[in-house]
Amino acid sequence: MAYYSAQVDKYLEDTRNGLLLWEIFELTAKFVFKYIEEIKIQCETIEQKSIHFKTAYYIHKQQYGENVHVYRRNSNTSWYIIYIIDTFGNIFTNKIIFDYTTIE
At what angle do helices 6-20 and 29-44 cross, to 10 degrees? Predict the structure, then answer.
């Protein structure tokens, strides 16, 4: 089973609202909701993965969890999902970090 922290729920809500109001590119509501849903699906399917990678930064391990799943949306965009696995195999997503590389 996959669970989200309140911080993750708020982050995804803020991301959705930011994309809906983004002035650089006009994105349709359908696209934005699908985009957020795809991130949630990544979180919900982590428990099905056979390999779990450890976080690289001590602060992440200390505050959010020992494991990280990298979701590469495209060549410019990655999402880092930091989580804990309990003894029953449940996934607790505690932090999502967005990384966008600008190409000029």
Answer: 160
